[in-house]
Amino acid sequence: MNTTEQNRDQRIREIYKNVQTPDSVKERINETLNAIKQQEGSAAAPQIRKKHKKPLSFRKITAIAAAAALGVGGTVFAAERIYQMHLNQNGKYQSDIGISTEQALPEEIEAVEVKAGYIPEGFALDPDKDYYVNESKDAGYYVHEPALIDEADPLSLLYVTDAETMTIDGHEAVYLSISESTDKDWRGDKLFVLYEEMDRVLPMGIWGHADKDELIKMAENIELTPTGKKTAVSGLPLWSEIVNSPEGKKAAEEPDDSTYFNEASEEQMANVHQVGDSFQAESTLKDGESTVIQLEASVKNVQVADDLSLITNEEAIWPDTYESWKELVGPDGKLLPDTLLYQRQGDGVDSMPEIVRTEETKVKLVYAEVEYKNTDSKAYQDVWYFADLIPIVKEGDTYKIFDRTDETCDYVDNENTGVRHEMCYADVSGGGSGPKNYIPELQPGESVTIRFAWLVNEDELDKLYLNLNGNLVFTEKGLEIGFVDLNL
């Protein structure tokens, strides 16, 4: 070993001499350093071929030793590129994932196919979304398209209760347990698996009441197979795009979305309809192109009940909602009170969501019948519809979304998740059994009546408006179409 090699070897060991590592990791460091020496030894020997690899820089060598010492992923050679996966904790509940590389992506790269060899029992791929969901739709797993690894800042994730590195089928991976709710059983975990030899990272995850072990089992049985064909890098998902997505930004960096707002002027609220009025409502077709159409809408019948007797088709209730509704039915068939949870969100860095106080609330069922009419000369198939409730109060000349929060809390939820303003019972006449939010067919001049129902807090009844544009807050389109004052 010459003087330069001795000095560099000593510098690498000095950098990591204070790192506390098990014997197995120390062996990895020594093996790495030995491999570097062997590579240099062979590089000094006579070469038959004129082309040879560029000698490793000190920066790359220290990166290899760092990965071995820290044991948080690996620095690996793949397709002439070097990767290093970092997992750092910033604050109590914020974790940062970084994947570093010194080489730029080529213009073309080999295409790959993703094949899932295992799906959890009771789950199936949702045809309208990119995740696997169970029948009650309270749990799901997703496998996103592999992302090409390019230079990017670390991916910052909040509300992380646990973060760990692991090896999955020989690939370095990072698993993050995430909980953004006071319901500790409701998860939003993420898993990133590094496929070094394919220059990609595979994002996976769960939501709801899905299981961590099942997600890992899915990852163990996934295959990324080269197709043998080259494809342009432009247009393929990138790691930097994941980092720069809203969920990859810190809370303080998230952009303000002006599409949705909680206040509206009298002028904006001028187009309010009454029960029995006919008005033009916008809809889209489930045709793959989301073709926008106009239908004539009218709310024909609105009722309030203290039981579920107005529900004539139990199969038209969303499965998870039906289970929640049944929990609120007492022995006499009447609706039981629920509990309001006043909660602080926490910042996801040093604090987590917490319940600050509770309050009992009476619950009522709101029932509405909405008639949609096709006034066009052409028939429509699979017509989407949406119907959500919005509680609105007027303060002076301003209309506001009713809000229970005060200086002690950030938001208020019902303990029973079935008490909510989103559409969760939709019975389409002639549409068959089961919940749907589309009309199978609507001929010219034909009308179809849809029966909706919601469970709401009793003190909100006199504030409720029906929004057929399908949002729980004000939007320009919703105000343009106009809400229906239910006058309860």
Description:
The protein is α+β, with helices and mostly antiparallel strands. It is built from 7 helices and 30 strands. The protein has helices at 3-15, 23-44, 58-70, 212-220, 239-244, 319-327, 476-481; strands at 76-78, 81-89, 95-100, 108-116, 123-125, 131-134, 139-143, 147-148, 155-157, 160-168, 171-178, 190-195, 200-208, 222-232, 263-265, 273-274, 278-284, 292-305, 338-344, 354-361, 363-373, 380-384, 388-395, 398-401, 411-414, 425-428, 438-442, 447-457, 464-467, 484-485. Strands 5, 6, 7, 8, 10, 11, 12 and 13 form an 8-stranded antiparallel β-sheet that branches. Strands 15-24-23-29-30-16 form a 6-stranded mixed β-sheet, with no helix packed on it. α2 packs antiparallel against α3 (58-70).
Structural class: alpha+beta
- What number is the mean pLDDT? 82
The number of distinct helices, counting runs of at least 4 residues, comes to 7
Q: Quick one: biggest sheet?
A: 8 strands, antiparallel
* Shape annotation: globular
Helix percent reads 10-25%
**Quaternary structure type:** single chain
**Strand portion:** 35-45%
End-to-end gap: 88 Å
What's the number of extended β-strand segments? Answer: 30
**Rg estimate, integer Å:** 29 Å
**Which runs of at least 5 residues are low in confidence (pLDDT < 50)?**
2-26, 35-81, 250-255, 430-434
List keywords for this structure.
single chain; 488 residues; alpha+beta; eight-stranded antiparallel β-sheet; six-stranded mixed β-sheet; 7 helices; 30 strands; globular; disordered N terminus
